[in-house]
Specification:
- It is an enzyme of class 2 (transferase).
- The protein is built from 12 helices and 10 strands.
- By secondary structure, it is α/β, with parallel strands linked by helices.
- β5 and β6 form a beta hairpin.
- α4 packs across α6.
């Protein structure tokens, strides 16, 4: 009920893909939204997907988290995953699908309804398999300037005590040659986390650049897969969270009542 009081949907000016979702989606009591977030590694899929999950009352399922959880578990796939991640390569379809299938089954058993998938699908094969398993209402493709993206990836930090995600990069890009400028403030941790920050082992410049190259090569067919089905909503991040969050809500035709009340106070 809390999610409903925070959320207002205005259908009159909704983008085509999102408007189709509202007209075709089953009633709220049957299930909630089933969305996918696409975008380069480090673009902020996790940040924005998590915020929307809190707003809509659905679970946030990030394939990156599933991989890291398996790595930490010393399970049957952990050694294979460790080598893949440290080399900056993408995890295979078979491994990702195995991890995701288990997560979806666990969620269904707990009575979860709806979801936002973060980082999946990454290939046409994955998209086709997902389409055969469940209905996807809307696919949000986040984009950002490459210079800002690299800085964001290298600035990522994790608190090794609470597990919080932060970013120490302070980004300021001048607008030139028709390109918009961009300013992004760092997302710093609270004081008690500052001394506990660690960098992910795969967040080095060489690994990040290789990861982005591979993603760019593989992402276009997936984007076209959903574009051809009228489900793709492309969103260019104009800056950090303060600039991008309200515009993303506007693009999705959503309204965060609690956040507006907090700002007004």
């Amino acid at each position: 009920m809390a999610a409903i009081t925070r959320l207002v949907k205005r259908t009159s000016s909704l983008p085509c893909a999102a408007r189709r979702f509202l007209s075709q989606a089953p009633p709220h009591k049957e299930r909630n939204v089933q969305w996918v977030f696409l975008g380069c590694p480090g673009v902020g899929k996790g940040t924005y997907a998590s915020r929307l999950c809190n707003l809509l009352g659905v679970p946030h399922i990030a394939t990156g988290d599933l991989v890291r959880s398996e790595l930490a578990s010393n399970g049957p796939l952990s050694s294979q995953l460790s080598e893949i991640v440290n080399q900056g390569k993408l995890v295979s379809d078979e491994i990702i699908i195995s991890l995701l299938s288990k997560r979806l089954a666990d969620g269904e058993a707990k009575g979860e309804t709806g979801f936002i998938l973060d980082g999946f699908p990454r290939t046409i094969k994955q998209a086709e398999i997902l389409e055969g398993v469940t209905d996807i209402d809307l696919v949000v493709n986040l984009k950002i300037q490459e210079e800002a993206l690299l800085a964001k990836c290298l600035g990522r930090r994790i608190c090794n005590q609470c597990g919080g995600n932060f970013n120490v990069a302070s980004i300021s890009i001048k607008g030139e040659n028709g390109r918009s400028g961009m300013v992004m403030a760092p997302l710093l941790p609270p004081a008690h986390c500052m001394s506990k920050l660690i960098t992910r082992s795969d967040d080095t410049e060489a690994v990040v650049k290789e990861r982005l190259r591979i993603y760019s090569e593989k992402s276009q067919p997936v984007e076209e897969f959903y574009r051809s089905r009228g489900k793709l909503l492309e969103f260019n991040l104009p800056g950090g969270i303060p600039e991008s969050w309200p515009k993303l809500l506007q693009a999705l035709n959503l309204y965060d009542y609690e956040e507006k009340q907090s700002v007004a106070a």
